[in-house]
TrEMBL record:
Originating organism: Plutella xylostella
GO molecular function: 3-demethylubiquinol 3-O-methyltransferase activity; metal ion binding; polyprenyldihydroxybenzoate methyltransferase activity
Localization: Mitochondrion inner membrane
Residue runs in coiled coils: none
SUPFAM superfamilies according to UniProt: S-adenosyl-L-methionine-dependent methyltransferases
Keyword Methyltransferase appears in the UniProt entry: yes
Presence of the UniProt keyword Methyltransferase in the record: yes
Required cofactor(s): Mg(2+)
UniProt pathway annotation: Cofactor biosynthesis; ubiquinone biosynthesis
Lineage: Eukaryota, Metazoa, Ecdysozoa, Arthropoda, Hexapoda
Protein family: Belongs to the class I-like SAM-binding methyltransferase superfamily. UbiG/COQ3 family.
Name used for this protein in its record: Ubiquinone biosynthesis O-methyltransferase, mitochondrial
Gene of this entry: coq3
Keywords carried by this UniProt record: Magnesium, Membrane, Metal-binding, Methyltransferase, Mitochondrion, Mitochondrion inner membrane, S-adenosyl-L-methionine, Transferase, Ubiquinone biosynthesis
Length: 287
């Protein structure tokens, strides 16, 4: 069974009982349906925390340096999940012809990296300032002159209805841990709605464990000051099992789960069998 963050809220149960007992009230049905439809996965305070880092977003030695170095492992992970091509047959743009949605793209660190490999990238984020930064930075990247990412300021639940079944790949890297627990299913379902049948979703996120509480939160934020204090809320972290269940009950098959480890001293990421700190997950949408 899933842990308590994924239990149906009591308010939803009450609404369901109310709806079943009042079929003669279409106005009430529409009102309650609209309320659920306009649920938002966005936490304005969390968005502002990241927006405040705008001036340092592309500083590879600043507070976002771990995210920059993360590209060295997460981009190959995404590439190999989308296209299975022998190393000897690879070109410099192995993702050419692949459409990819980068959810929570921020200032475009991952979006640009995927676009350089030839992917047709759409990046979305709830921060208008970071989307503007992403557009400005990619416009100045000479490696992207022929393949600029497209950026849009909106949350995934607003993007999904008009882009159903559009993308070959959806990436949600370092974002689901910032979504409130009672909104995680809406977030995942919205991501999957945009994915083609047979397409793949890629997620990276810290694991909810005592180890991550010490390293990702306490050490990184309060001792080494690698990221600003208050960036993470440990209670929003997930375990690989929880995320697997969440994906599979929404029409996916989880193909791979890998552990991740970050070296604070060398600023390098590596894959590992141990998922107690952080993990990367790949799943395919059922046809």
């Amino acid at each position: 069974m899933l842990s308590s963050p994924f239990r149906l809220p009591a308010s939803s149960i009450k609404h369901a009982k109310l709806l079943s007992s009042l079929p003669q009230e279409p106005m009430l049905l529409r009102a309650l349906g609209a309320q659920q439809k306009h649920q938002s996965t966005v936490d304005p305070q969390d968005v502002q925390k990241h927006t405040d880092l705008k001036s340092q977003w592309w500083d590879t030695t600043g507070p976002m340096k771990a995210l920059h170095s993360f590209n060295h492992v997460r981009i190959p992970f995404i590439r190999d999940g989308l296209v299975q091509i022998p190393v000897k047959e690879r070109t410099t743009t192995p993702l050419c012809g692949q459409s990819v949605l980068d959810v929570g793209c921020g200032g475009g660190i991952l979006s640009e990296g995927l676009a350089q490999l030839g992917a047709k990238v759409t990046g979305i984020d709830a921060s208008k300032e970071l989307i503007e930064l992403a557009r400005t930075h990619s416009a100045g990247n000479t490696k992207l002159q022929e393949n600029q990412p497209t950026y849009c300021c909106c949350p995934i639940e607003e993007h999904a209805p008009a882009h159903t079944g559009l993308y070959d790949g959806v990436v949600a890297s370092e974002i689901i841990e910032h979504i409130d627990n009672d909104k995680k299913e809406l977030f995942v379902k919205s991501c999957l709605d945009t994915l083609k049948p047979g397409g793949r979703i890629f997620l990276t996120t810290p694991t909810r464990s005592s180890l991550s509480k010490v390293t990702v939160v306490y050490m990184a934020e309060y001792v080494l000051n690698i990221v600003p204090r208050g960036t993470h809320d440990h209670s929003k972290f997930m375990t690989p099992t929880e995320l697997t269940f969440l994906l599979e009950r929404n029409g996916c098959h989880v193909e791979m789960v890998l552990g991740l480890c970050y070296n604070f001293v060398t600023n390098r990421w590596t894959f590992t069998k141990n998922t107690s700190l952080q993990f990367a997950l790949q799943a395919v949408k059922n046809a």
